Amino acid sequence: MGTALVYHEDMTAARLLWEDPECEIECPQRLTAALEGLQQRGLEQRCLRLVAREASEAELGLVHSPEYVALLRGTQALGTQELQALSGQYDAVYFHPRTFHCARLAVGAALQLVDAVMTGAVRNGLALVRPPGHHSQRAAANGFCVFNSVAIAARHAKQKHGLHRVLIVDWDVHHGQGTQYIFEDDPSVLYFSWHRYEHRRFWPYLRESDADAVGQGQGLGFTVNLPWNQVLAPHPRPPPRAPHPAHIPLPERSPGHRARITPGVGMGNADYMAAFLHVLLPLAFEGQMQATPECFAHLTQLLQVLADGRVCAVLEGGYHLESLSQSVCMMVQALLGDPAPPLSGPMVPHGSALESIQSVRAAQAPYWMSLQQQGAAPVLSPSTCSPEGKPSPLLPWGPEFKAAATQTMAALSSLLDKLCLNPTPPVRTAVALTAPDAALVLPPGVLCQERSALPEEMQAWARPHKALAQDKALTALGKVLYLLDRLLDGQVSSGIAATPAPATAATLDVAIRCGLSHGAQRLLCVAVGQLDRPPDLTDDGYDSWVICMSRSAYGWADISPWIPRGDRVGSVSHTCSLSLGRRNLWLNIGGKEAAAPSTFHVCVPLPGVSGGVMRARPLALNCPSWGNCGCICPSEIGSFQPDLVLVALGPAHGLRDPQAALLTALLRGPAGGRVLALIDEESTPQLVGVLARVLHGEAPPSLGPFSMASPEDMQALMRLRGPLEPQWKMLQVAGEAGVGVVRLRVSA
Is 135 labeled as catalytic in the residue annotation? Predict the structure, then answer.
């Protein structure tokens, strides 16, 4: 299965026929710029191209009233003056004789994409459409939007394909109030929107765009609004807009209108990642803005761990053509399975963003069990509530916008000048086994590596280790070294290598030292199972960072920077770009009690592999320091981003295949997809196959039924937050609610 790209050139036919500065930014070039960007980077050719069809009027009727559909049908026969008069009855809308046709194509493209994903013809996809749809309501056009494509697609997915739960993720500078109104009483659709709000001073100026708008009736708790309230910044950049993905086959939408330029945007990559990790993903697992284009790739990659990777994205907004093109390309690369490039900028959420996230958690706590389970209930911060009385809107012609416009465009130009899409390595995934296995089934394009390092190189690295003296272990080490070289020189993106069980720890030791000697400045090592820490790696010596997590069959684990004293093979020196008073971060997951002796020494109890936190949010996704070590997202400490991730599944690791796959999938983000997985040569071909598929860009398999962590485990994690927050800034988004697991409720 691949990635679909749905498009029809007729969607460029509708255009503004009169002068209107507010509406002229919604132009046909938005689609052509996005498509040309995909073509220039060779991404269109890698997708399955589908020609959009018109949606039937019956399909439009899944959301819109017959009278409204008839009104739009009638616009085909109207003259320019009549179209202008009709457009004036709506907010920020223009009609054209071809609008009805274009809007039906936009809906049809979304429906085609859902059908293709649900029937297994493709794994995921993107629909390039216009006009947009998320502001349109049952009987009203609004904000450039005519028919609500995503809402119609959601109902279509439920009706035709029997889906019981649909997640709509609406990332846009403006709130998609039309989609919210349509599903606000429907518990089968979880609607998540982040948007600029400015305490109701930003279009569409609605009270129901705030965090405390959580749905109605049976839909209480299934509308999640994350309003950004302090977006104006001293050095603003406008947000690049990307397609809006939706989960469990559901695309989304959204433009960014009301202002030709949205200056002063202060929300950055850290704010968006924090929102995903502490609001959206917890809810999903239970049941204008400085986001750079590469951030959209990371967000899309995170979404793909849900719903078996069935993600439908619908492009509806985006009005700066160059940034739109960049963001679309980043999203399509992520959908195709390409690794996401490292995030730029410090990963420190803004204070206003933290307040907004905390307000969302407080508003949702009554409806989500895990938030209720976490002791002291969070409260809405007064600073995040909309001010009383009529707000003073931020007008596109006002002094705040005009003063920042020049800075905005200069900052954007600088950003785009520096942005470079990471080229895809010639080989995305390679597998190096000690012996061929007839039962092993690998995805197309995965390379079976047979080559090995030179004998003298193997022997030099193996000399300090008795476990590598055997011919079998030495042969396996040679393949590991060769694969590691290919990873570090950009020829291979990720790999899997087998090694004899007794030699796993020694091979991991060599891989760490070899990586450092070949120029890697930071290594993230995740060692799972009964693996001893390599010798001589606990003393200061290297200035590079190696963070290691290990987990035994008994639930013990630790994360610590291994800073070796010296390399027994080479004498390469390394320069550290981090300036911290201490270099050791020790996270013991599975200790007897929760404790934080220091910021860099943390002990966390963890239940057995088969339940609790491991089942609910696999492998400590809700463990405070896990995300801050770069496993889920880059951390505050110098924006720690490893050059290489080493994953070692040692003896008695105890992980089921889906758990190992999810762990590996989440680890693709921090190092731009550079992941080397070391496995026991006795591992089943099924494990090798699932890891290869995940590293190749496919979604991890489902973990099965969700289960909650115990109250004792949650309380232990919560007690750790206070001592850690001052250093680990990404932790602060947890607020009073702590770090929790949320269960998606399913209505009867």
Answer: yes
Mean pLDDT in residue range 29-52: 95
The whole-number pLDDT of residue 300 equals 84
pLDDT digits (tens, 9 = 90+) for 245-303: 443 333 333 333 333 223 334 556 666 566 655 566 656 655 544 455 667 777 888 88
Q: How far apart are the first and last CA of the chain?
A: 33
Nearest to 325 by CA among 47, 37, 127: 37
Helix boundaries (H) for 396-544? 399-418, 455-462, 471-488, 504-517
- The residues pairing with 196 across neighbouring beta strands, listed in sequence order, are 228
Contact criterion met (CB below 8 Å) for 339 and 672: yes
Q: Give Cα separations from 604 to 375, 577, 622, 692, 717 (angstroms).
A: 18, 28, 11, 31, 7
Give me the count of residues in the chain: 748
C-alpha span between 591 and 298 (Å, rounded)? 32
- In our burial notation (b when 16+ CB lie closer than 10 A, e otherwise), range 438-462 reads eebebbeebbebeebbeeebbeebb
Which residues make Cβ contacts (< 8 Å) with residue 742, sequence separation at least 6? 282, 283, 285, 286, 287, 368, 369, 370, 371
Task: Supply 696's token pair.
Answer: 């190749």
Distance CA(369)–CA(419), nearest Å, equals 42
Angle between helices 455-462 and 504-517 (to 10 degrees): 110
The span from the CA of 748 to the CA of 732, in Å, is 36
Contact 687, 693 (CB under 8 A): no
| pLDDT band at residue 306 using 50, 70 and 90 as cut-offs | confident
Task: Return the SS3 of 93.
Answer: coil
544 contacts: CB under 8 Å, gap ≥ 6: 516, 520, 521, 522, 523, 563, 574, 576
Are 312 and 127 in contact by the 8 Å Cβ rule? The answer is yes
Of the candidates 96, 135, 247, 298, the residue annotated as catalytic is 135
- Provide the token pair at 246: 């939706």
Query: The tokens 């216009």 sit on which residue?
Result: 130
| 453 phi/psi in degrees, rounded to 5 | -70, 165
Q: What pTM does this model have? A: 0.80
The single-letter DSSP state of residue 730 is G
What is the mean pLDDT of the segment spanning 56-83? 98
> Are the C-beta atoms of 734 and 390 separated by less than 8 Å?
no
Q: How far apart are CA 235 and CA 86, in angstroms?
A: 40
Domains and CATH numbers, the chain: 3-233+265-373 (3.40.800.20), 427-553+593-606+627-729 (3.40.800.20)
